């Protein structure tokens, strides 16, 4: 039993490693109820589980209004800079250039968030061109939603973008979601060294995560939860009880994303 699971069974916050959630959100969502979606409620859960930090974007930015939502994200980070780093959300239909110009140099943001499925625009589309230029110039990662079979963010589209922009770091959110998508995401990452797999999603398992690490190395896999859209404890448990070495587990839980953010100066 490792120190992380020992703390869990003892019902106390773990202190063995720095955990960073690479895929979180904040605020209410219009389609269904999310309990405690505010930053204070999120921090309480993070503290209970020993999660040090989370990278987040507001649900408002993703779903309805990128400009107002990015301002909300910046305010959340301003109030709790030690606990949160923002994702700058780019909606391809809501002036991507203006959002990048407004927030691209703001230290409260450490990367860019895309949701092609929700915005019904393909990852390979020209409206995202400023995002890839920004990513290659700054080194900041781009977290994109992925889903196997989607016309907007299927894994072959991730591979196409990675081929066009080899200096851009792409976090494949959900790693394609489905078992087929997870296999496809590994194959894409094997071909493109700057594609990193993020593991949250309803279909992922500890065994699948261990398989990702065996194929790619822990430096290519990061913990994310979709919190509070999905409870972070479920995604966290998959990694805590997965068949990983202590060093690999620590890298997936926070070491890899921390090193990546450190390279950007965020």
TrEMBL record:
Keywords of the record: Hydrolase, Lyase
Transmembrane segments: none
GO cellular component: cytoplasm
One GO term of the biological process aspect: secondary metabolic process
A Pfam family that the UniProt record links to this protein: Amidohydro_2
Keyword Lyase in annotation: yes
InterPro entries recorded: ACMSD, Amidohydro-rel, Metal_Hydrolase
GO MF terms held by the record: carboxy-lyase activity; hydrolase activity
Domain Amidohydrolase-related: 61-262
Name of the protein: Amidohydrolase
Organism whose genome encodes this protein: Nonomuraea longispora
């Amino acid at each position: 039993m490792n120190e992380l699971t020992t703390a869990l069974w003892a019902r106390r916050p773990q202190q063995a490693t720095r955990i960073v959630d690479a895929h979180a959100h904040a605020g209410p969502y219009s389609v269904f109820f999310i309990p405690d979606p505010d930053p204070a409620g999120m921090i309480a859960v993070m503290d209970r589980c020993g999660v040090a930090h989370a990278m987040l974007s507001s649900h408002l930015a993703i779903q309805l209004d990128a400009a107002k939502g990015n301002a909300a994200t910046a305010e959340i980070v301003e109030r709790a800079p030690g606990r949160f780093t923002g994702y700058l959300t780019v909606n391809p239909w809501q002036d991507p250039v203006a959002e990048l110009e407004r927030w691209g140099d703001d230290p409260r943001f450490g990367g860019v968030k895309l949701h092609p499925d929700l915005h019904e625009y393909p990852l390979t589309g020209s409206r995202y061109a400023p995002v890839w230029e920004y990513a290659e110039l700054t080194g900041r990662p781009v977290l994109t939603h992925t889903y196997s079979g989607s016309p907007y963010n299927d894994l072959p589209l991730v591979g196409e973008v990675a081929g066009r922009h080899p200096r851009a770091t792409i976090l494949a959110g959900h790693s394609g979601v489905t078992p087929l998508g997870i296999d496809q995401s590994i194959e894409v990452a094997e071909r493109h060294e700057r594609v990193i797999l993020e593991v949250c999603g309803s279909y992922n398992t500890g065994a699948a995560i261990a398989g990702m690490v065996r194929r790619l190395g822990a430096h290519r896999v990061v913990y994310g939860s979709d919190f509070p859209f999905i409870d972070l404890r479920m995604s966290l448990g998959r990694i805590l009880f997965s068949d990983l070495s202590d060093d690999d587990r620590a890298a997936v839980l926070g070491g890899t994303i921390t090193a990546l953010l450190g390279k950007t100066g965020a």
